[in-house]
Amino acid sequence: MSNHFSHKSSSELDSVVIRFAGDSGDGMQLTGTQFADTSALMGNDIATFPNYPSEIRAPQGSLFGVSGFQVQIS
């Protein structure tokens, strides 16, 4: 077994935006909410923007609504 460790550089950002997106029912709202809550508990300032799919039924043969959640961390 090798004891070789790779050292990767990292950088600190003042602000970052993360977007979670998926089909309706994939849990994007829950994922975004938990990510935002955890980030806030770590002492970061956050702003959230949930994006819910339309209540109108999608036309036959088209894709269903997309659910998204955006988190800005600063």
Structure write-up:
By secondary structure, this protein is α+β, with helices and mostly antiparallel strands. It has a domain of 48 residues. It is built from 1 helix and 3 strands, in the order βαββ. The chain has a 3-stranded antiparallel beta sheet, with helices on one face. The longest helix is centred in the middle third of the chain and has 14 residues. The protein is elongated and about 55 Å long. The model has no long low-confidence stretch (mean pLDDT 86).
Largest sheet, in brief, is: 3 strands, antiparallel
Distance between the termini: 41 Å
Helix fraction? 10-25%
Q: Return Rg in Å.
A: 18 Å
Number of strands: 3
Task: Give the mean pLDDT.
Answer: 86
Order of strands side by side in the largest beta sheet? 1-3-2
Q: What pattern of helices and strands is seen along the backbone? A: EHEE
Structural class: alpha+beta
The rough form would be described as: elongated
Strand content: 25-35%
Ranges with pLDDT <50 over ≥5 residues?
A: none
How many helical elements? 1
List the helices and strands and how they pair.
Blueprint (H helix, E strand, L loop, with lengths): L15 E8 L4 H14 L4 E6 L14 E8 L1
Antiparallel strand pairs: 1-3, 2-3
